[in-house]
Structures are given as structure tokens and as C-alpha cells.
Amino acid sequence: MSSVPPQPVPPLSQTLSRYLRALEPLVTPPELEESREGVQELSKRGGLGERLQRSLEKRAQRTHNWVSDWWQHTAYLESRLPLPVHSNPAMALPQQDYSNWKGQLGFAAKLIAGVLDFKAKIDNHTLVVEYLRGRPLCMDQYRQIFSSCRVPGPKHDHVMHFAGVRRPPTHITVVRNFQFFQLEVYNSDGSPLTVDQIHSQLLRIRSQSWKTDKEPMGILTSEHRNTWGQAYNTLLRDRINRESVRAIERGIFTVCLDAPVMRMSEERYTSRMAAQMLHGGGTYSNSGNRWFDKTLQFIVGEDGACGLIYEQATAEGPPIATIVDHVLDYCQAPPFVRCIFHIPLYRQTLNWYFVVNFLFIYLFSISCSLINDLDISCFTFREFGKNFPKKYKLSPDSFIQVALQLAYYRMYGCLCSTCESASLRMFRGGRTDIIRSATNEALRFVEVMEDPQAGAEMKLALLKEAIEAHSTYTEQALQGQAIDRHLLGLKLQAIEEGLSVPEIFMDTSYAVATHWKLHTGQVSARTDCVMCFGPMVPDGYAVCYNPLPEHINFSVSAFNCCAETNAEKLAGSLEQALRDLRELVLPRED
């Protein structure tokens, strides 16, 4: 694994000045003035700000990473919202070339072998260190993805890791028709099962799971965390249930063999499949085939629809995308391996003593309401890909982010707080910080872009300024110099020391600045796929994209409960914004 430096604590004055600048395009002048007064108070020599800053710097010296544990708890483990849609991202993979159960099991066998092949690189310490902008990245997240699971708690959840125990797990979990199986995936000599061996075991699992009248126990994990926590504790009182739950939690990963889904129009098919990956389609579809607490679940549908869903308290999207790229490459040409060892016996179905009947009528209705509330629109923008802005020496990511600002402005007449995840893996134990895309430069550009009197030269100049501002903020974030994790640290350090929370966290501006109406992310993969997730706030959107050389895959989601949002409309506005930006950039003939 790579050796990387510790994550720095940014200078206090730098963070506070950048915070005020970030507020300018978002809040009113009186609100901004109130925040300036709060910043001045926190900046006083010998005051609260200096004390908290010193405490953070000491914390950085004695911990693996001064903010990652705090971030994991506040962003994920303390949240009580359901994991599907609200937290767990999903990835819709390219439609596979089969349409029956035989093809399903054949592909699943290769997929499982491919994941085990990737895991072997971690176990053998042969995983190639990744680099970003010439600097090595922390590879710790890969060790956390396998054999781990989130566990509900009364006030906050926790994550259990089993890969580092003396006898690490050697099984995966396979789910079909709501029935869970424990499948041993290593031979007696420690070598992973071959594709043929796995396929043989999947055939046996299929023969044992043809009934479709089983209780969908997995759907319990889709509920509000407090409700699921109560059901979890009830389940664990029984020995049979406890053994089944522990087998799922300890498993290396989970494979969900889904039933086919009713085919919609070709235009809506990708969106429908993305929704299937996010939540499983409901009680009477495939939601019972999930254990949403599990860190990594691969989904293989009988109709060729495939993807994955992961619990992100442990890892971000880029490592997941790297695993997917490896697995799909493996599936294209799996190596032939002859095995002379006996095929291990898989455990029988993980059994349940059904003691939570009183919850199911309630949970079924809640699950359906969650699913019906999701508004998602996936599309592929085919008029250009990341090569186009590169040709004109423009950052593809910044180009897309400015297009998003224009698309939102055209719908609502203003900018909103926009977060884009920036990886902090250049640092030891680093997770993410936020790139704030709603900048002063972006606001000036979108205002002029919508001014019919403004000329093309001015629009192009302001477009380049907006792109440059976003690129600069991106570089600052990657270097550990963004503002949001530092602000979080100052707030939590005050709470930890029993001090008054600084006033800047109590005013209107901070509430506006952290109400993320645009939750965005670039998850680049060589595979022609797209990741998707739900909005962070009820009146917001989530936009994820995978820019490929000649096209860009997008997912846009919102909630139907909010009359002001519409995923399809934002998707359409985004497509037009991308076209308009291209027209600005293209050289004009005299």
C-alpha cells in the first residue's frame, strides 16, 4: 500500500476568508454582513477560533486522520434516514447479452471470480498504487470494502470489519427469491473457486430457491435506521436469526440474483434500471433480495440488467469504479484454471425464525412510499465527451459543472449551494471534501449568458473565468485546502471541548450554504456505466456523471414529494446547457 502524508489542517484565516467568498453568490447582503461579523469574532487574536485551531492541529498529530472519523460519523453513521436512495449509491452497468437464467448464472459465476481475483491483489499486496496528478493515493479504502457491514444502533450505527481477524471469512452471500445462501468460495488449499466451480454451486442454489413465497427479510434493512435497529435487536434474540445475520455481515460481499423486471420503453429503460439498482423496485420486485447494510452488493438480473449498490460509510465511488472496471475486464476473458480439489459444500439457506410480523405491514408501505418518491432520469449525452473541452484546454469536469450551474439558473433564476465530492486520498486515511461550484464567477457567467444584449466574446471570456475558478477550487480541495471539512472540525472540536459553538454556525448564511440543493459527483470509469444516488435535501437534486472520451453518462434524481423539482426537466436543461457551452467554445468563422 502507498505511503502518503497526513492530511493538513488548513490555516484558520484562509478558511474563514474563503468561506465568506463562497457565501457571496448565495445569500443576501444583510445575511452576508451578519456572517462577516461572526467571522471577525472567530478571528480575534487569542479568541475561540485560535483555541479550536490549536486543538485541531494537536488532533492531527495524534490521529491517523484528524477529520475522517468525524466525517464518517456525522455524514453517515449518525444519519437516521433509510440507506436506499438517501445514502447508498448504486451503479448501473451496461446491459448484458443474455435474457434467461442460464445466462444470469454464467455471468454471475464470472463476476464472482473476477471480484475474488481483485481481492487477491489486496490480500497479496500486489494492488498497483493509484496516482492523481502525479501523487500517490492512499489505498486504505480497498481493505475496508470486503468482509464489512454497517450495523444499526439506537443513536448511531457502526461498521464491522472482519477481513483483518485471525480467521477471515471465506464465504460470500448469494440471494435469490428473498432467500439467502452462504457460499464458500475458496478451496481447501486456499485458492479461490474457478468459474466452473462457482457456476456449479449457483446451479445448486437455484434448485434450492425456486419458491417465491418467502418473507423478504432483506427489506427490513431499507427502513429508517431506528425502526430497523429495533427489528435488528428483535431478530438477534433468536439463535437461528443471529447466525443468519452474522453470516451476511461477515461475508466477503453479496450477490443478488434478481428476477426479471417488466420492460419499459427504451427511452426510460436506463432510468428504470438505475432505480432498480438503488432500491430493488419494492416489496413485490427485488428489494427483498438486498441487505442494504452490506458494504458491497453486486446485482445480476435474469433479464441482463446488472449493477451494484454499496454502503458508503466505508468507501467512496472511485475505488468501487476501479473494482468494476477490473471485474468486467475479467468477465470478458476469464483465465482457464483447472482445479483438482473437491468442490466445497455450500451452507443451506440461511434460515429465519419469523418473529417480526408486526413490522411487515408497516415496512411494506414505507418501502413503497420511498420508492414512489424517487424521481430519476438517466441519459447519455452523445454530442461530445471529455475530449471536446480537453481539445480547447478546458477541464472536462469544470466544463460540466459550469453547465450544471447554467442549467439550474435557467430553471430557478438563481444559483444554489452545490457540492461536488473531491477525493482526499492524497493523504493518509483521507475521504472527501467539497468543491463548491456555485462561485461568483459562475454567477457572472450565467447572468451574462441569459442576457440577449451580451456578445459572444464576453460570454466566452466569462465562461473561461468560471471554468478556471472551479478548476482552482478543485486543486485547493485536492490539496486539503477546501473549507467544509475544516469548518466541520472547528464545530465538532468546540462541542467536544464543551465550548460554545461559534456564531457563524448558527446564522442564516451557514444554513443556506450547507443546504445542498445540487449534490453532484464525477465517478469516472472506463466502463460505459453511470453511478446514481439520491438528493441530500427534499427540495434538491443529485447529479452524477461519467465523462467518457466521446459521450457523457448522466443520472439526475429528485423527489416527487417536492413540487418544485423535476429530474427530467433538469436533465433537459443540462443537455441544452452543454450544447450552448459547446457553441460558445467552437471557433467562429469570420
UniProtKB/TrEMBL annotation:
Q: Does the keyword Acyltransferase apply?
A: yes
- Tell me what this protein is called: CACP acetyltransferase
Q: Which Pfam families match?
A: Carn_acyltransf (PF00755)
Q: Which segments does the entry list as coiled coil?
A: none
Bilayer-spanning residue ranges: 352-372
Tell me which InterPro entries the record gives: Carn_acyl_trans (IPR000542), CAT-like_dom_sf (IPR023213), Cho/carn_acyl_trans (IPR039551), Cho/carn_acyl_trans_2 (IPR042231)
Q: Which family does it belong to?
A: Belongs to the carnitine/choline acetyltransferase family.
Supply the PANTHER family for this chain.
Answer: CARNITINE O-ACYLTRANSFERASE, CHOLINE_CARNITINE ACYLTRANSFERASE DOMAIN-CONTAINING PROTEIN
Keywords, alphabetical: Acyltransferase, Membrane, Transferase, Transmembrane, Transmembrane helix
Q: Which organism is it from?
A: Polyodon spathula (North American paddlefish)
Instruction: Using the record's annotation, list all stretches that form the Choline/carnitine acyltransferase domain.
Output: 8-576
Q: Which SUPFAM superfamilies match?
A: CoA-dependent acyltransferases
Protein origin, superkingdom: Eukaryota
